[in-house]
Write a structure and sequence with these properties.
By secondary structure, the chain is an alpha/beta fold. The chain is built from 24 helices and 13 strands. Helix 22 crosses helix 24. It is elongated, with a radius of gyration of 32 Å. About 5% of the residues have low confidence.
Length: about 550
């Protein structure tokens, strides 16, 4: 078609469009010289752990360069939209300490000069830029009934993009004449707008990704859908328009989008826009329990894909963020050991240090980080954090923790502080089960084996210890008393004892093990002396006798 026909066609397709110069003047270049990054959640579900992982990059990159981190809601997939999902996603960013500087603010009024920051409120902008693209001869209407079906599949968030394998896909409607298009429009046929691809798939050019490094990219040769037949843009089109107008400098997204990069580059060039920097992050993976193969974290299969899982479980916010930083920059762990008291925001984060291999999510590592962080809390801080968690997530635990402040604070204080604080608390949903032995009406569920210990000898030791037990002034005196009582008893069966009496006579290890079981119902606990002092003589004797009854 001629230039004149393209102009007429643009007016026919988008009669109410404004000239794009209006928006290019309205959205002025940002004044900051730092990086402008954005997170763009879709209200089709909860905030995914992979998005939180990327949000850490956005926030720290903006911080490091004195730039701006903003939030844009990509709500153009109305078929899959979940009520208030956008609000929840924004709330999670704030809760995890990654609050954007401007943009979409959930239930609150958006902030910033580059809005609307909700894509469904920007349709007139998209149509104006679609008009411009048609006028330039870089886009055409497609009247095929299923023109956007494949594109809709490709745009599903959190899922792997499917690759057709074809290097060149030309839509048949690109060859329609002006008269044929005009006739279809007059007949009331719906149309989707497609890119008129001009690339040669046999040609490549070098592209430098901020994470993946230098890569050879083939030119785009696919007539991708840009605007669906309902007038709503697909990600490719909205991304180019929005990130240009909003001043984004680096687009950070999952590596599954890397294969779509050629069309995004061609689309930006078609508009004459300055290209963005791109950073395609590796995907956090797990081992599939059924296949044993490495796979992406799945919304359907993995409960922790929803970042609310970590709040519900009672992990400290910093534990999750610092774990993700370990995945992003491998030297974070060394930095943390050298700077145990500094906030993670002081870490010299470097986007170039992000590896290209998909990392595995490791709960053991997360738990270790979480234990270390909680071990640095004071007893009062542990209690307050546990109470705050329970108030939001567990009504039963909240009542228990609220009613037992004194005794729980005392138990939290044991072995806390110093160079080697105890690390028994992983997350706050464990509190009621970890310390049930200091709570009223404790009923232990004994589950242990006697091993070489002779039952009758053990019963005699416990009877002796319970009968003469008195509270001691300190741990040393308590331990000496336990050793003294234990020395009067052997714990092994007669045959084992005769073979090596020096080991089994007065075995304080066995003695303390079974006293601990009697008092706490567990084989591991904080310092036993302090626990027994908190409980008092009467309660301790009662529990020792309960174990005796159980053994008999």
């Amino acid at each position: 078609m001629t230039s004149k026909q393209n102009e007429i066609l643009a007016d026919m397709l988008y009669p109410n469009a404004l000239d794009t110069s209006f928006y290019l003047k309205k959205y002025k270049p940002r004044k900051t010289s730092g990086e402008v990054t954005r997170i763009a959640p879709s209200p089709t579900g909860y905030l995914h752990i992979g998005q939180l992982y990327q949000a850490v990059i956005h926030r720290l990159l903006a911080n490091k360069t004195n730039g701006i981190f903003y939030c844009r809601l990509e709500d153009t997939d109305n078929k899959r939209e979940v009520a208030k999902a956008g609000e929840i996603a924004y709330d999670m960013l704030v809760r995890f300490g990654l609050k954007p500087d401007e943009g979409y603010c959930g239930a609150k009024k958006e902030t910033g000069e580059y809005g609307p920051y909700v894509q469904s409120k920007r349709l007139e902008i998209y149509h104006s830029f679609a008009h411009e693209l048609v006028k330039r001869g870089h886009a055409f209407p497609c009247f095929c009934a299923s023109s956007e079906n494949k594109e809709e599949i490709l745009q599903k968030r959190e899922e792997e993009l499917e690759e057709s394998g074809d290097l060149e896909v030309k839509d048949p409607c690109r060859n329609l004449t002006f008269k044929e298009i005009e006739a279809n429009l007059k007949a009331g046929k719906k149309f989707a707008l497609r890119l008129r691809s001009m690339g040669d798939p046999t040609k490549t050019h070098e592209f430098n990704d901020a994470i993946k490094g230098k890569k050879d990219l083939r030119e785009n040769a696919k007539d991708d859908v840009l605007i669906k037949s309902n007038g709503i843009p697909v990600y490719s089109f909205a991304h180019i328009v929005d990130d240009t107008l909003m001043g984004t400098t680096t687009v950070i997204r999952g590596q599954e989008w890397f294969q779509s990069l050629p069309v995004h580059i061609e689309l930006a060039q078609a508009f004459g826009f300055k290209p963005f920097k791109y950073a395609h992050t590796p995907n956090i993976c797990v081992l599939d329990e059924q296949t044993g193969n490495k796979r992406k974290i799945s919304k359907r299969k993995d409960a922790f894909a929803d970042v609310r899982f970590f709040l519900r479980s009672g992990y400290p916010i910093n534990a999750v963020i610092e774990y993700l930083l370990n995945l992003l920059n491998s030297d974070f762990e060394i930095w943390r050991k050298q700077n145990p008291t500094l906030p993670y925001t002081d870490f010299p984060f470097d986007i170039k240090k992000i590896g290209v291999t998909n990392p595995m999510f490791d709960f053991l590592k997360l738990n270790d980080i979480s234990k270390t962080i909680i071990s640095k809390y004071t007893a009062n801080e542990v209690y307050s954090a546990a109470l705050e968690w329970a108030k939001e997530w567990n009504e039963k635990d909240y009542k228990t923790i609220a009613e037992n402040k004194d005794v729980l604070t005392q138990i939290f204080a044991i072995d806390r502080g110093g160079d080697r604080p105890r690390k028994d608390i992983t997350k706050f949903d464990e509190i009621s089960s970890l310390y049930d032995y200091v709570l009223p009406n404790f009923k232990p569920k004994f589950n242990f084996e006697l091993g070489n210990v002779q039952k009758q000898n053990l019963v005699e030791f416990l009877l002796d210890y319970a009968k003469n037990y008195t509270s001691q002034p300190d741990n040393s005196a308590w331990f000496e008393n336990l050793k003294q009582v234990a020395s009067l008893h052997n714990f092994a069966d007669n045959k084992t004892y005769k073979q090596n009496p020096s080991i089994y006579a007065g075995n304080v290890s066995d003695a303390s093990k079974f006293v601990r079981l009697a008092i706490t119902g567990k084989e591991n606990s904080p310092e036993l002396y302090s626990i027994m002092k908190i409980l008092g003589e009467t309660e301790c004797k009662k529990r020792l006798n309960n174990l005796i009854k159980h053994i008999k």
